[in-house]
Design a protein that fits this description.
Length: 170
C-alpha cells in the first residue's frame, strides 16, 4: 500500500515519463528532417525506453492498490537545433528526470515507505545509465563539430542501438 501523497507523486512521474517519450519521438522526427536516420532511430529507441519506464510505474501504482490518474501531456518542441544541441538538450532533460527521481526517493524515505524505495532504486540505477549513454554520444559529437563525414559516421553508429528489453506482460 502507498500513501495518497506517494500515489500522486508517482502519477506525476508517470506524466513526466510520458512527456519524455513524447519529446524523444519529436526529436526522432526532427532528426529525420535533418537527414540523419541513425540519430532518428536512436531517438525512436529512446521513445520505446521511456514507454517502458511509464509502464513499469503504472504497474507499480496498481500493484500497491493505488489509482492511476493520467494527465494531459505537454507538447514538446519541434526544432532542436544542431545534432550537438539535440544531445545537449537530451542530457539536460535526463538530468532533470534524475532530480525528479531523487525527489521521489526523498519522499519514500520521509514516509518510511520501504517498498517504494526498493522500487525506485531501479530508476536511480537507470538514470545513471541514461546520463552515461548520452555523455558517450556527446563526446564524439563535440569532437566532430560541423564535419559532415564525422556526423555520418556517428549516424551509422547510432543506427546500431539495441532495442530496449520488453517488460513481461501482466
Ligand atoms: Fe525515463 Fe529517460 O528517463
Amino acid at each position: 500500500m502507498i500513501s495518497e501523497k506517494m500515489q500522486e507523486a508517482l502519477n506525476e512521474q508517470v506524466n513526466r515519463e510520458f512527456f519524455s517519450a513524447y519529446m524523444y519521438l519529436a526529436m526522432s522526427s526532427y532528426c529525420n528532417t535533418l537527414g540523419l536516420p541513425g540519430f532518428a532511430y536512436w531517438m525512436r529507441m529512446q521513445y520505446e525506453e521511456e514507454n517502458m519506464h511509464v509502464t513499469k510505474m503504472y504497474d507499480y501504482i496498481q500493484d500497491q492498490g493505488g489509482e492511476v490518474h493520467l494527465k494531459a501531456i505537454e507538447e514538446p518542441e519541434r526544432n532542436y537545433g544542431t545534432p550537438l544541441e539535440i544531445f545537449e538538450e537530451t542530457l539536460k532533460h535526463e538530468q532533470y528526470v534524475t532530480s525528479l527521481i531523487n525527489n521521489l526517493m526523498d519522499l519514500a524515505v520521509e514516509e518510511r515507505d520501504y517498498a517504494t524505495q526498493t522500487f525506485l532504486q531501479w530508476y536511480v540505477t537507470e538514470q545513471v545509465e541514461e546520463e552515461a549513454n548520452v555523455n558517450d554520444i556527446l563526446a564524439p559529437l563535440r569532437m566532430v563539430g560541423d564535419d559532415k563525414g564525422g556526423l555520418m559516421m556517428i549516424d551509422q553508429q547510432l543506427a546500431g542501438r539495441a532495442a530496449p528489453m520488453a517488460l513481461p506482460t501482466k
